[in-house]
Amino acid sequence: MTLSVLIVGCGNIAGGYDDTASPGIRSHAKAYRHHGGFTLAACVDPDREKAAAFAERWGVARAYASLDEIEDRTFDVVSFCSPAELHADHLQSVLDWPVRLAFCEKPLTLDIGQSRRLVAAYEQAGKALAVNYQRRWEACVRQLQCEDWGKLLVANGLYTKGVQTNGSHLIDLMSALLGPLTVDRVTDAVTDYLPEDPTLGAVLRTADGAPVKLSVGDRQCFTIFELDLLFERGRVTFGDSGYNWCRRRVIDDPRFAGYRILEPVRWERTALDLALSEAVGNIAEFLLSGKGLLSTGRTALATQEVVARLLSFQGEIR
Asked: pTM for the complete prediction?
């Protein structure tokens, strides 16, 4: 069975980050094409020429300038690659269409209340909602979720470019690996991207009370995204924006009897370049055989709730 796809928004994440020949998969169009089980049935962009060029480049059957132009609204999947400020209206627009699954770029919406209402509305309508926090689909992250490293001692995340823009990816990754997080306090605030999206340092807590720290850099100097997890049985570090990782188990110190140390540093490449491909594969398995989605409206909403809480703490930096 071939699954039909409508892509809404024809910018970079829709297809602009890729070409048809490069090995990486960084866009929705290429991920669907690479999978082979999907048909790109239609695309929408308010710039009609842009939509037509996108359709020609990626082999999309029909191109439109708005959702209202579409008469045959029967799609298995709608990919929302439109600007974040349009997500709420777009998600609401297709809620009554015969669509089986909406795959939305993050954040769901720019307003936590709207996100709560839409997640509830999709659940009530019996429609699936996936959100592209793509590290949840990355193979090394899923491998780590299945490994036993013992109790978490402390987690340290370092990021730039806004708590909503990049910080939400870090918080979602932490939540995927460590479980639900609560906000203890906000410690720093840097405006290195948008005034309405500060880069916030903070202390969070896991359900067991372990400290999860957010530290901030400054995008005006350089961009960074790293996560360091210290467990009782070792240390796991994601570096280079998650494109590399290092796992170090606890071993006996060969130099000093009675001491325990970590294995030597050995960096390995992750499969982050293929995470969108894994996302599309997960969507296909969900629609065809009922396998659970790895990143949903509910998991994305939980991340947005943490971000909203952090933003509410800005006036209480300590």
From this structure: 0.95
